[in-house]
Amino acid sequence: MDYNEFFPPHDGIKLAKLAEMLGAELSEPNEGERIVRSVAPVYRAAPDQVCYILSRKNRAELETCNAAAIICDVALTSLIPAHIPALLTKVPHTAFANAGAILHPIAMQPSPVVDVAGDISPAAHVDPTARLEEGVIVEPMAVIGARANIGAGTRIGAGAIIGSDVKIGRNCTIAAGASVLAALIGNNVILHNGARIGQDGFGYAPGPRGMLKIVQVGRVIIQDHVEVGANTTIDRGTMDDTVIGEGTKIDNQVQIGHNVRIGRHCGIVSKVGIAGSTRIGDGVMIGGAAGINGHISIGDGVQIAAMSGVMADVPAGARYGGAPARPMKQYLRDMAELLARADERDKKTGEKNG
């Protein structure tokens, strides 16, 4: 197997040890000495790689699979080729994610652009009043403002900007080109390349000569274990705070407006726009390119389909879709009726739909 230069293989771990680390059962204990170095998709997995399947839909891909092991639920064991052992677990998706972290640790956060000799590059600017704990790494061209506080083990990427009085916790990664202003950042936070945190929100009042800017004097608070994608923007609050809850994962190119409060362990996919002062509960999942109106509340555990337009409050546990967004069953029924009408029209006119 040829590995790419960006994410080289692990030095090797025995399959039995990997099973132990994943909390999985090895279907063939006598195969525990196999060496695993990488992850791969099912169809091209090689003898030193591990892959996973979640359903019978992967059956055809197994014909060309030569993996060291396949992670799967016990219910799918009968699909596994005889020459490949299985790592059996009730949570195969989770187990594969953990296997990837073990075998490719450098891919779990943005990689350094430049290896810094020592902790702080001479080409970086660190204000003399800033406080950096031991082990903070600052890459070239990064700027750290007055009175900023940065915790041990955090890395500030090349060209990143950390504003005055910003506080960043421990073991964070602020990738190249990111900017952090008027913000308090927790521990183990990842901000990907070009993320913009803490710029002023979009607030204007009508005046006799046009739009008058409303002052934005709040903050952004990002709690522990949050990940923010590349070129995502999170605006500071107008007078209150914009808050991102613990464990929430935000994709690339998301816009989060001022005073928005997002709960814990949410997932927000790319191109989502969330207008100001919206409240989002815990465990909410929002599909790509959805638009969320301002000053509304979305309850815990809500799922919102991609491309939806959410105009009003959504109750906890609901599944919504469409524009305007409505309960998923209603949305699917409406779409079926529209398609049926379109088919009937096309029959009458002799045209074909789509």
Model description:
It is a single chain. With 354 residues, the protein is α/β, with parallel strands linked by helices. The chain has 2 domains: 13-108, MurE/MurF, N-terminal domain (Udp-n-acetylmuramoylalanyl-d-glutamate--2,6- Diaminopimelate Ligase, Chain: A, domain 1, 3-Layer(aba) Sandwich), CATH 3.40.1390.10; 125-329, UDP N-Acetylglucosamine Acyltransferase, domain 1. It has an 11-stranded mixed β-sheet, covered by helices on one side. It has a 10-stranded parallel β-sheet with strand order 8-11-14-17-20-25-28-31-34-37, with no helix packed on it. The radius of gyration is 25 Å and the shape is flat. The mean pLDDT is 95.
Short description:
With 354 residues, the protein is an alpha/beta fold. It has three helices and 39 strands.
List strands and helices in order, with pairings.
Layout: E1 13-14, H1 15-22, E2 25-26, E3 35-36, E4 38-39, E5 49-52, E6 69-72, E7 86-88, H2 92-103, E8 125-126, E9 131-132, E10 137-138, E11 143-144, E12 149-150, E13 155-156, E14 161-162, E15 167-168, E16 173-174, E17 179-180, E18 183-185, E19 190-191, E20 196-197, E21 204-207, E22 210-213, E23 219-222, E24 227-228, E25 233-234, E26 241-244, E27 249-250, E28 255-256, E29 261-262, E30 267-268, E31 273-274, E32 279-280, E33 285-286, E34 291-292, E35 297-298, E36 303-304, E37 309-310, E38 319-321, E39 326-327, H3 328-349
Parallel strand pairs: 4-5, 5-6, 6-7, 8-11, 9-12, 10-13, 11-14, 12-15, 13-16, 14-17, 15-18, 16-19, 17-20, 18-23, 19-24, 20-25, 23-26, 24-27, 25-28, 26-29, 27-30, 28-31, 29-32, 30-33, 31-34, 32-35, 33-36, 34-37, 36-38
Antiparallel strand pairs: 1-3, 2-7, 21-22, 38-39
